[in-house]
Amino acid sequence: MLYDAAGEPASLTPAELREAYEAQLRAVVTDLGVDAVAADTGVDSETIEALADGPAPQLRVEDAASILALDGSRPDAESIVLELRDHLLMAMTTGVVDVDAIASNVDLGLTGQEIQQALEGRTAMTLQQLAEIQQYLAERNDR
Fold first, then answer.
1. Phi-psi map region of 87: left, alpha, beta (phi>0 left; psi -120 to 50 alpha)
2. Is 82 exposed, middle or buried (0-12, 13-18, 19+ CB in 10 A)?
3. Is 139:10 a contact under the CB 8 Å cutoff?
4. What is the pLDDT of residues 7-36, one digit of tens each?
5. Phi, psi of 126 (to 5 degrees)
6. Given its phi and psi angles, is residue 2 left (phi above 0), alpha (psi -120 to 50 degrees) or beta?
């Protein structure tokens, strides 16, 4: 489901966490093939090929959810995204963290307002941004 791609996200770097997300996605691409994934998700085949070949840090969370949803054992893409957002917001609540704290502690070049918009789905979030945010929240909650 993306957020559960790694058992202990606090122990990973954001790059390692992003790689864990991408490993889940690559498994779907390997099972179904680049062309089928591109056709069924609407994600362009160049992006799917880049994901299959290695890091794809600009891949959007919504696109990743569309890819994961092709795995019959997972829920639909919208449910994956909503569950991810819920997970992040719960981590913020548990750690008593606001979006300004996230903005000042992750290397994304985003303001608190921009992070809030991404968390709420009003702007796109990339897997790299997700990894930075999730890793920070997990590390903070592990203290």
1. alpha
2. middle
3. yes
4. 899 999 999 999 999 999 999 999 999 999
5. -90, 165
6. left
Amino acid of residue 21: Y
Report the distance separating Cα 9 and Cα 135, nearest Å. 6
C-alpha closest to that of 125 among 61, 66, 67:
61
Tens of pLDDT along 57-109? 689 999 999 999 999 899 999 999 999 999 999 999 999 999 999 999 999 99
Enter the pTM of the model.
0.93
Two structure tokens written together for 15 = 């790059």
Our CA angle for 95, 106, 10, nearest 5°, is 55
Q: Tell me the C-alpha distance between 62 and 57, whole Å.
A: 13
